[in-house]
Amino acid sequence: MFALDVAAHTGPWRSRHPAEKALLSLGLLVCAVALPTWPGALLSGGAAALLLAGPARVPPGVVLRAAWVPLLFVATSTVPLLVSMPAPSRLAVDPAGLPLAAQTAGRSVAALTCLLLFSATTPLSDVLPRLHRLGIPPAVTEVAALTYRMLFLLVDSVRAVRQAQAARLGFRTWRTAYRSLAGQAGAVFVRAFSRARRLEEGLAVRGYTGSLAVQVQEYRVSVPFVVATTALLATIITVTIRVATPW
């Protein structure tokens, strides 16, 4: 399993109702996106980070491992905001782009932290079955569940092929490494396609008609948690309005 999934299945918030965590995480996400960057996004992202490290007890290494690719995308996306083209063949630093780049990066990082708060505390297996009650078509959730399952099969195939190649000194030199990577791509495709076909045949033998009936564990909604979440969101909105509104 991925480290984020392990944290979601073993964390202290595992027994909480997904709706509680959705209210908290998505509420902070809305505040980070809709409110001014200062201090709305800062407060929302900071609250999500404190909850991740505190009550949710998600290891910082897991959060950084899941966030480094989106953070790299945020960094590369804000660089064009810092430059301008006064001439067709010349680039120059745009002083007016620094505040815009800072606001964009701050809002993006805050939104990412809010999303990680939900994904690191809520397993996907608790979310997908409950989406039917919200009117989501079963075909959509079934495709999402199968895609999620196939990700693990793909990762297992890549790991198995790579270990076999490493045992045969396939990465000893740059030349052998390139050859091993090419063979790895072909072998992973064949293994993944074969396992996907076996999965499809297994579902057909079991009478799959487009919907998988699974047992969903019921959780009770914690009223104190909902009240605390509402108070936190109201505090962030109030503080942001007071700071952002000139007297």
Order of helices and strands: HHHHEEHHHHH
Structural class, from helix and strand content? Answer: mainly alpha
pLDDT averaged residue by residue: 83
Low-confidence stretches: none
Structure, described:
The protein is mainly alpha-helical and 247 residues long. Helix content is 70%, strand content 4%. A two-stranded antiparallel ribbon has the order 1-2. Helix 2 (18-34) runs antiparallel to helix 3, helix 2 (18-34) packs antiparallel against helix 5 and helix 3 (37-53) packs parallel to helix 5. The mean pLDDT is 83.
What is the structure about, briefly put?
The chain is 70% helix and 4% strand.
Keywords:
70% helix; two-stranded antiparallel sheet; 9 helices; mainly alpha; 247 residues
Q: What order do the helices and strands come in, and which of them pair?
A:
Elements: H1 3-10, H2 18-34, H3 37-53, H4 60-78, E1 83-87, E2 90-93, H5 97-119, H6 124-127, H7 138-167, H8 174-205, H9 223-244
Antiparallel strand pairs: 1-2
Helix pairs in contact: 2-3, 2-5, 2-9, 3-5, 3-9, 4-5, 7-8
